[in-house]
């Protein structure tokens, strides 16, 4: 596989908003950027997994609010954030999941609580289903873990954003940052120019393929998502927090209710006036419910 050049802590990163030490890990498919904050030897680590077109910057409020008591590990997928953009990597969620599995194993994380959003849901829940004894709990925000075949909304979204025109829009216009993100906010004024710049800069021309592959994957990864649906029940009794933005145009209330059915003992926190990008739109307000949930897990 041809290798692209990893980005090493560029000067555009807003270190006031994202005051974490950048670390890099060389894995078989490419170099992964991550942050690792908090106690050095906890019994478990929080593993923050982002979606499209975001990166670990998405979780800055949670990391800042939790790192005094919990080890917080947040990586950027290949092709996103400060990680490498390898030429020839598929950027499919199944391969992102494989990279995450290798990342956890290489770091030797003994016990992880996936904190997931958007495509981070299938990626993180895939890890949890394959390693249930290494996952003491889950924090789930607007996502899914099943195929969407037959759902008119998802089918239309995938065909548009993941089709030929979507490819042009994503690769030439950075459409997910410029258009999709603001449309998915409940209050678009929260996506300030400064914040949007932190999502725009990691995706330069020639480095945006992953943002097109992911919406396309709702159709191309149907078998993987179907298999995930069959595997997830092994963790259905794991302690789970569902933190949901109730004005998300993509992952709607019906998806939350499906998660509640799947994880029958889950604790649900509904955020009115919050759209798709829950960790961004709630800001520090998400810290308290997550902290309360983690305290009940007794990780320490």
Task: Summarize the structure in words.
The structure is a single chain. The protein has an eight-stranded mixed β-sheet, with helices on both faces. Helices cover 40% and strands 14% of the residues. The N terminus is likely disordered. It is globular and about 50 Å long. It has 300 residues and is an alpha/beta fold. β1 and β2 form a beta hairpin. It contains twelve helices and eight strands. The longest helix has 15 residues. It has a domain of 199 residues: Alpha/Beta hydrolase fold, catalytic domain (Rossmann fold, 3-Layer(aba) Sandwich), CATH 3.40.50.1820.
Summarize the structure.
The chain is of the alpha/beta class. It is built from 12 helices and 8 strands.
Instruction: Supply the number of helical segments.
Output: 12
Assign the CATH architecture of one domain: 3-Layer(aba) Sandwich
Radius of gyration: 18 Å
Q: Could you report the average pLDDT, rounded to the nearest whole number?
A: 94
Classify the beta-strand content into a percent band: 5-15%
What shape does the CA trace take?
A: globular
Q: What is the structural class?
A: alpha/beta
Termini separation: 41 Å
The CATH topology of one domain is given as: Rossmann fold
Protein topology:
Layout: E1 23-27, E2 30-37, E3 45-49, H1 60-66, E4 71-75, H2 93-107, E5 112-116, H3 120-130, E6 138-141, H4 152-161, H5 164-173, H6 175-184, H7 193-200, H8 209-220, H9 222-231, E7 240-245, H10 253-262, E8 267-271, H11 278-282, H12 287-297
Helix pairs in contact: 2-3, 4-8, 5-8
Key descriptive features of the protein:
single chain, 300 residues, alpha/beta, Rossmann fold, eight-stranded mixed β-sheet, 12 helices, disordered N terminus
């Amino acid at each position: 596989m041809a290798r692209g050049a990893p980005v090493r802590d560029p000067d555009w990163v807003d270190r006031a908003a994202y005051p974490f030490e950048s670390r890099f890990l060389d894995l078989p498919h490419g170099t992964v950027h991550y942050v690792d904050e908090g106690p050095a030897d906890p019994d478990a680590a929080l593993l923050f997994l982002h979606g499209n077109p975001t990166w670990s910057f998405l979780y800055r409020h949670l990391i800042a609010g939790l790192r005094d008591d919990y080890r917080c590990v947040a990586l950027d997928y290949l092709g996103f954030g400060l990680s490498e953009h390898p030429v020839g990597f598929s950027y499919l969620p199944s391969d992102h999941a494989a990279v995450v599995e290798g990342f956890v194993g290489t770091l030797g994380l003994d016990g992880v609580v996936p904190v997931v959003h958007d495509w981070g849901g299938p990626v993180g829940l895939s890890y949890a289903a394959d390693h249930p004894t290494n996952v003491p709990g889950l924090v789930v925000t607007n996502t899914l873990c099943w195929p969407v075949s037959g759902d008119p909304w998802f089918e239309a979204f995938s065909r548009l954003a993941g089709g030929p025109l979507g490819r042009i829009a994503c690769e030439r216009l950075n459409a997910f940052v410029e258009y999709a993100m603001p449309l998915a906010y409940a209050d678009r004024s929260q996506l300030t120019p400064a914040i949007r710049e932190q999502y725009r800069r990691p995706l330069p021309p020639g480095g945006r393929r992953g943002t097109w592959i992911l919406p396309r994957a709702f159709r191309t990864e149907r078998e993987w998502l179907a298999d995930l649906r069959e595997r997830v029940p092994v963790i259905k009794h794991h302690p789970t927090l569902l933190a949901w933005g109730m004005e998300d145009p993509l992952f709607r209330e019906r998806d939350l209710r499906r998660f509640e059915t799947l994880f029958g003992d889950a604790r649900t926190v509904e955020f009115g006036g919050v759209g798709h990008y829950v960790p961004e739109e709630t800001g520090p307000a998400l810290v308290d419910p997550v902290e309360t949930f983690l305290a009940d897990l007794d990780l320490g």
